[in-house]
Every structure is written in structure tokens, then in C-alpha cells.
Amino acid sequence: MPDVAAYAIDAPDGRYTKTTITRREPGPTEVYFDIAYAGICHSDIHTARGEWGRVHYPLVAGHEIAGVISRVGSEVTEFAVGDRVGVGCFVDSCGDCEQCRAGEEQFCTSTPGAVFTYNSIGRDGLPTAGGYSKGITVEQDYLVRIPDSVPLEHAAPLMCAGITTYNPLKRWGAGPGKRVGVIGMGGLGHMAVQFSAALGADTTVFGRTLAKRDDGIALGARDYVSTQDADRMKELRGSFDIVISTISDGMELDALLKLVKPHGVVVNLGLPEASSELNLGLLTGQSRVLAGSNIGGIRETQEMIDFCAEHGIGPIIELIPAEQINEAYDNVVASKVRYRYVIDAATI
User: Fold this and answer.
1) What mean pLDDT value characterizes the chain?
2) Nearest to 276 by CA among 241, 302, 251, 245
3) Contact indicator for 259, 239 with CB cutoff of 8 Å
4) Which of 42, 114, 231, 282 sees the fewest Cβ atoms within 10 Å?
5) Residues with Cβ within 8 Å of residue 7, at least 6 apart in sequence
6) Are the C-beta atoms of residues 297 and 163 closer than 8 Å to each other?
7) Domain 161-292 belongs to what topology?
8) The pLDDT of residue 275
9) Which of 13-27, 198-212, 276-290 has the least mean pLDDT?
């Protein structure tokens, strides 16, 4: 079994340090690929710091992974050595339940359900370890093929930030004749703006300040509004077909619902630590919809990255060495990154 270098954290208040982990040899339908880049998602931080429940320490996080296959199992038919591939938030599921058959493996209803890329229990009975490492073994059905025109360092964040924003925009019909509002211009928001614009929707970004206005306009937004501007917020009430909220706090659901038209939808991607309240009259009075969304299946993730290749879409990244993971975590929490940190696995 291959031993690979990795970065792991051993406690909620710990720090990432270099270590060695063991990956299993590829089974008949599995591949092993050398990781080139791994994005840092805020979910990594919540998990590593024990904010979302039980953690299997030591933890190797990372579910935005891109690299090149170096070994394949004897029955692998979909991929070959040298192929450029990516892995997102999950690496296994039953493959046979209603959700898996529908191409939504992330919602696998078997026991224990989808196997997540890290902090889960894999088919070998061991805790899964993610992309902050030099290599990973994965079942072929959970790989995404990366088009040659998409640089690997830009492909990595698409495995989570990309599909997390593409999925709800497609599901709720973003396109020509539709008006879309994007709340927040961070790692998720700056991808949502690009997808919405490329799908043909009239797109507006909402941020606390106008500090990122130029970036938002450059990425395809037609307008950029400060949520602190009471006059503009009032003026825009009832204007949007779809509002995608990428933030975890800072804006009440009532204010978001007021932005959408009758039958319009507010889709929440963030996961606040505290419970949220809303005025149900804002839903029933205008037949509005309040929805949630959480990544997408393998088939749609492939569709998403092919769409990125076709339209020249990609994340704005800051490439960092692995030794800066701890500093990067603090910067993400403080909203100091524009817009996604990506670890260069060559530095692990």
C-alpha cells in the first residue's frame, strides 16, 4: 500500500503539521492518482475545528482535489494512467438506491449513506482522508474528468465551490429573461456570478460593502449593491426570480425573501451556526419559495466542469504552499482571501 505525505490536524484547537498516511492499493475498479492541487473550502475549517460535530482525528481535510492518474485497477474501463481527474465532496455510495440511480449520489439513502472524502468511514472500514496529501485512491465512478483546457489548479475548487453554485442555478432555471441575485462575493459567490451570467441571466451581486464591485462586474454582474444601502434594498424588493445566498450570517431571511418576485426562490447555500427565523407571511403572501442546496451528483459535476471549459469559467485563486494552511484558515474566516486558496501539493 502506498504511503504518502500529508498535512493533518489532531484537535479542534490544533494546527496542521506534516505527516504520512497510508492509501490502499487500487482495487479492481479503483484508481490511484497523484494529487496536484487541493482547494481550501470553509467546510474544511468548520470540520477541522470541530464546529460541525464529531471528527475523526487526526484529520486530513480537502474535498476540492485535482490530479493525474498513476495506477488503475484491473477492471477499470472509464479511465487510464495519465488522465486528468478531480474528486469532490464524496468518494463512494451504494450506487443502487433511488437517489444514486437518479445521479444524486450525495443523497444516498443506504446505511451509512454517501462516503465523504474526509471525516467519513470508507469501504475499508477506516476513516477517509482528503486532498491535503500527495495521492488518493478512489472508485472510478466517483471521479470527474478534467478537460484539457481547464488548468488543474483552477479545476480543484470547481469540485465543491463550482458544483455547489452551478446546481441550484440550473435547478431553478437561471437563464435568459431571469433576474438572479447573488448574496456574498466570496469563494462561492464569485463562482455563482460567473455561472449565472454565462447561463444568460441578468445578475446582481449583493455585498456588505462595494469593495469587490469591480471584480463582480468583471465576472459578469450587471449591478453590485451594498446591503447597507437601505434605499437600494427597498428599491429592489420584488425584483428577482432567484436569489442565491452564499453567506452563513449577516442577513436575515426576511430581507432575502423580500427581494424575490411572487413564485420566486431564495436558495440558501450557507450553514449558519445559529437557528434562523422568518416571517411565514413573506412565503405564503407571495407564493415565494425558500430552498436549500448542497453540491450535486457526479454526472452534474461533470456537466459543470465541461460548461466551465466551454465558457472559460474558473475560480480566482491564491496558490499557497502546504506550510501556510493554518494561516490560510485564519484568513478565510476573516474574509481576507480573493477568492479561493489552493494548496500546491508539490509542497507537501
Assistant:
1) 95
2) 251
3) yes
4) 231
5) 16, 17, 18, 19, 60, 132, 133, 322, 325, 348
6) no
7) Rossmann fold (3.40.50)
8) 73
9) 276-290
- pLDDT at residue 35 is higher than 80: yes
For residue 25, give the C-alpha cell.
Answer: 492499493
Element at 213 (helix H, strand E): helix 213-218
| pLDDT at res. 112 | 85
- Cβ neighbors of 11 (< 8 A, separation 6 or more) are 57
Strand partners for 67: 35, 85
- Which parts of the chain are beta strand (E)? 3-8, 17-22, 30-39, 65-72, 84-87, 90-92, 115-116, 135-139, 144-145, 179-183, 202-207, 223-226, 240-245, 260-268, 289-292, 317-320, 340-344
- CA distance readout (Å), 181 to 49, 178, 313: 31, 10, 19
Q: How far apart are CA 315 and CA 220, in angstroms?
A: 13
| Chain region(s) in the chain for CATH 3.90.180.10 | 3-150+314-347
Query: Has domain 3-150+314-347 been given CATH number 3.30.450.20?
Result: no
For the whole model, what pTM was predicted?
0.95
List, by residue range, all CATH 3.40.50.720 domains of the chain: 161-292
Looking at the DSSP bridge assignments, the partners of residue 290 are: 266
Q: What are phi and psi of 230, to 5 degrees?
A: -60, -35
Per-residue pLDDT at 307 exceeds 80: yes
Dist. CA 220–CA 102, nearest whole Å:
32
**How confident is the model over 110-166, as pLDDT tens digits?**
988 999 999 999 988 999 999 999 999 999 999 999 999 999 999 999 999 999 999
3-state secondary structure of 34: strand
